[in-house]
Amino acid sequence: MLKQDIAAALEVAFSQYGFAEPSVAKLQKLSGVSLRTLYKYYPSKQAMIIAALEYRHTRYLHFLLENSPKPGVDAVLHMFDQLKLWMQEFAPNGCLSINALSAFPEDEAISNAVQNHKNEVRQLLGKQSLNTTMASALFLLHEGVSSAWPVMGDEAVITAKQSILQLI
């Protein structure tokens, strides 16, 4: 459980401070554990970033499906409503995964963590829509909302939902 608690604290730290600014000493302090304990579970800053991304990934997928209607159009629209809530509460500066990729474009392990996350979100959208051929189009709308949120806010979600209704 301690390992997961540390990953949760790292997720919050990277979300609030970005990836470049917090030193390992600051991450240790924000995690509430000793430096030795932090390094025991996550022996490098890269490992800390990946742990935060993987923790967030799990939390995000559960959040998208929270109180979801049965699969179909309503389930997809619900996911976009959940995306709006997520952006408001947890990601006002955009997608943490994309921010990590931007901060470390040459890091293969971070890139793989982001790719896995994005692929699972795309698959979930296809599954919830009951039309796997729509997965990529729905994913592009999802990513568009995430990217446009800091500039457009609610309008990004409203427009995406209108597009979904035209697509399906």
UniProtKB/TrEMBL annotation:
Residues 23-42 bind DNA. One of its GO terms (molecular function) is DNA binding. Residues 1-60 form the HTH tetR-type domain. It holds the Pfam family TetR_N. Coiled coil: none annotated. The lineage of its organism: Bacteria, Pseudomonadati, Pseudomonadota, Gammaproteobacteria, Alteromonadales. It comes from the Bacteria. Keywords: DNA-binding, Transcription, Transcription regulation. This is TetR family transcriptional regulator. It comes from Pseudoalteromonas carrageenovora IAM 12662.
